[in-house]
From TrEMBL:
Residues 1-19 form the signal peptide. It comes from the Eukaryota. The lineage of its organism: Eukaryota, Fungi, Dikarya, Ascomycota, Pezizomycotina. Keywords: Signal. This is Alpha/Beta hydrolase protein.
Amino acid sequence: MRFSTVSSLLMVGLRLVSSLPTTSSGTLSNLESPGSGPYPAYWFTEPSLSNHTIYSPISVPPGVSLPVLVWAEGGCENNGTKFAPFLSNIASYGFLVLASGPPNGSGSTTAQFMADAVEWITHRAGTAGRYASVDATLIAAAGQSCGGLETYRMRSNDRISILGIFNSGFLGNETFIASVGGQATEPPTTIKEVHKPVFYFLGGPTDIAYANGEADYHNLTGVPKWIGNYLVGHSGTYRDENGGAFGVAAVDWLSWAFRRNETAASFFTKGGAQEDGWEEVESKNLENLFAFIPSKKET
């Protein structure tokens, strides 16, 4: 993107931010990665959800609804801006992202942070004000590395339709660790308790979670599932501009699942992932995906 274009987006963002409610902590620094989507995005905080960072389009056009992503950080780090370029890019395509951890926070998160975010937005979605356009009938949970383990714990939350596991998987016995991120780990057999669609985004054989994620994918049964590897290792491309290749994949995943966007669907069903450089791509039962997700018209 040309510098002049970025500058224009930032100026637009500043004008819009000046009219936002005083609960926002949005500043110019929050707009440096507005994303590549049609709705320039930023992050802010809310006092009533103080353990999180919220990513949203700066302005939502009339008639556009915002599905929700609750996100858990890599390392279960209590830092909601750890993957800011990646999460801002998702928001710029018309999604509200509730990321575990305050901006640049310290310490660790637990899966309860994700559950708290779901509860919080469910009570605010569709009400007058900032969250009037949010659609809390469409919620996805996803996380990277340790955050993926937290994501699995959302498997029984009825408000969540679909899971995204990024560079993660249940820890096998040969690498067993009693606890991570302040919570006890779960054995690989827990995959039998997962009854939601799961999409796996891994980093290839050099990804420390590669074997775990691959095993989970193959042991998951009875639900739509997809897996792909982008060969960059465990750290992915989250801090690249707009989240890099993982950012593109995440937007396509949510746009297909929640907006039924056919262009996004081709990433998973017509070889789009392979064209973008993803390898070891497999899927099963994707034709049944929408049996698990509330029906909504694309907006």
